[in-house]
Amino acid sequence: xxxxxxxxxxxxxxxxxxxxxxxxxxxxxxxxxxxxxxxxxxxxxxxxxxxxxxxxxxxxxxxxxxxxxxxxxxxxxxxxxxxxxxxxxxxxxxxxxxxxxxxxxxxxxxxxxxxxxxxxxxxxxxxxxxxxxxxxxxxxxxxxxxxxxxxxxxxxxxxxxxxxxxxxxxxxxxxxxxxxxxxxxxxxxxxxxxxxxxxxxxxxxxxxxxxxxxxxxxxxxxxxxxxxxxxxxxxxxxxxxxxxxxxxxxxxxxxxxxxxxxxxxxxxxxxxxxxxxxxxxxxxxxxxxxxxxxxxxxxxxxxxxxxxxxxxxxxxxxxxxxxxxxxxxxxxxxxxxxxxxxxxxxxxxxxxxxxxxxxxxxxxxxxxxxxxxxxxxxxxxxxxxxxxxxxxxxxxxxxxxxxxxxxxxxxxxxxxxxxxxxxxxxxxxxxxxxxxxxxxxxxxxxxxxxxxxxxxxxxxxxxxxxxxxxxxxxxxxxxxxxxxxxxxxxxxxxxxxxxxxxxxxxxxxxxxxxxxxxxxxxxxxxxxxxxxxxxxxxxxxxxxxxxxxxxxxxxxxxxxxxxxxxxxxxxxxxxxxxxxxxxxxxxxxxxxxxxxxxx
Length: 599
Description:
The protein is 35% helix and 24% strand. The protein starts with 13 loop residues before the first strand and ends with a strand.
């Protein structure tokens, strides 16, 4: 890793000097930004949403929105073909640079890939446009690139449409598209934000490996300081369009000088060395129980000649949530955690034999959520609410805040119009917002504020149980810290119970009293956080912990451990191995600690 600027090459590959960008006649959103990146080096642009990171990178490729203008500054690419001043290049010549000399991996692969064209055709197009390759030559190079980026079946991936691939595989396709023409500079804009932690670790490892092979430079846009510690040699910290701090990654991470950088590091979630959450070994006051809950779906097969495919989303889940505590369900996409949450709320019915029991108060008769009458369902919906993952889509853009918050009371016929408004105003203050915001629309709020509004709406009916489905995964680190603090405060003040769904173990370590780790519809390990994180036994749990990036250069991601635990269950050590027909039971390893293994 580069120790200082004196060790860097004399002629950087890319130089950005005094760059300022504005939208229309407004004040610049990026002001006086300068940095350079050398061949084979990774520079991380770090900052929260709205800091100007993505706009800066789009300016390099000249793909800014129409209203955006580069007010001042120069961007020079010292390519193999000689120095090119990108800010003065004509659009026709700029098209030859994009995808050939400079490529970009965007944050959300589903928005960047055409849903109407096969993956192979979209990646081949890059070679046909920029290299003049024939269809057969392009296909051969694309299949080789697919193999390098880790597709298990390259022919299937070539023929697949984007919706047929998982998030991690789609992002690998985007990396293949960016890498197939062997660019000199790769710009990766939050390339792993939408991915599970184990997939993220593998994609980051892949990018470093490809960089080492090709010698390309990389600009990595991220707000995750753990990713920075694992990937970057140089760091530029941005806030509100300005550079707050820049320098070698080792110095910036170990000794941040600017208060804003220090604030980012203080807010960054990480699994602490010693997690301490007190929890009863056998709680007696349970608000929610899931007993032998399974859920299977029949999915139509691709061929009309073949029978439907059975998908087992949940398999024999037994969970118990004590009143006033937080039970976290952790796992990757497709592990079954959200399905379990939907069953807990009565939005999905379990397969026959499964039970979901809810007790509104201590000693109350259990309500069978899996078999409710209409009247029981209406009463249950008042006491069990959900906070969704995406604060941007969970609020209607056509409803003012006052109407959005009052709607649950209106649906259940609670209170007069003025009483509902008073309740909404009081709830806004509960979540740290002012009642003067009542007449605004959701688009006038930041992501963190919208999530506060979502929490306020969930609290309007005075529930006893909140199901939180990835409530902080779409937020910046400092905003995430604020929302977690708010959730902890509300839980303790109102004596709420949380079923908390997440793939982020650092978040779970902070908020949970009990953690259940799921993989392929099964709970593979369950324990309080202090036990689970200090003494993990299952290979998948170990992989999740190892994959969590930490803002510490001396603690890199252990890709070997990640690959072993995140791999196929039939490749795990024999004690934990399971196949479709032979599945070990969830057994007690020690008091309060259960592991799915062969005894």
